[in-house]
Write the structure tokens for this entry.
Amino acid sequence: MRILSGIQTTGNLHLGNYLGAIKQWVAMQDQGECLFFLADLHSLTGSMTPAERASTTIEMAATLLAAGIDERSIMFNQARVPAHSELCWILQGTARMGWLNRMTQWKDKAGKNRDGAPVGLFTYPVLQAADILAYKATHVPVGEDQKQHLELTRDIAEKFNTDYGVDLFPLPEPLISKAAPRIMSLRDGGAKMSKSDPSDMSRINLIDSDDLIAQKFRKARTDPDPLPDSFDALAERAEARNLVTIYAALADVTPQAVVDQFAGQGFGAFKPALADLAVAKLAPIRDRLTRLLDDRAAVGAELAKGAARATEMAAPTLRAAQQAVGLQI
Ligand code: TRP
């Protein structure tokens, strides 16, 4: 199993980012050879400033290290490994306009103003295919929203192999984690926890102090009813459901196990238990993160080390792709 995934860089990571993706990645290090990268090249299709791009890359890398990504994995930023861009260009000869035109993310992000959209937004999934195929990754942990890009990667890999009569690229499988919960805002159970929510009380940031974490859970919106004995009974109680989901994800148990434990109790009892658990799990990550953010050069050095390993790993595949299409390199 060769596992690879990329993540968009953002600043101010929160509990939703941690439980939704990062924690899954940390656990996967036991399951196979892992490559994790920061998609800084992909970020050129968005509206980040250069300063933000540089700082969020380091902050995201520091967060991954703080959360437990270690030497078992190869962690790097995409831009430091030229094979991604080089293979992307080759694969642009294979990908078809019609395929990319069907991508829902392209349609959503370009909106009505397609003429004004960056070309890179359209070819974004081809770079994603190159990310994956450069390492012959077999498994790609992604969210539900990236399934279509994975299908496209398989189509590109298959067409390349067929067109050039090679058996170069394996067809990667998406790993859609059932353990990856959707974490909602602490103020509104109908909205995703988000760094762009104007209320800081809506989210637990990974850099929040113990007191702030406790305060945010104490003030989280809930309802006056006690917890039921079945998780399904929380279907119409979005805020309550969210807190139970968070507890379960932090404790590595099922949401049903959480309601089994707290059935009949109100939020006056549940919230302090949740706050204690969150502090116990998040404080060590925050402390490591704070130290790493004080030594950004060291984080940069980790990325450079990862990039060197990644470059070496991608080299034979890039070379084989160049040879397959007849490029004299
Ligand atoms: N597009 C992915 C996202 O938005 C990030 C990404 C870029 C990625 N390249 C990848 C994910 C390769 C998996 C594999 O989440």
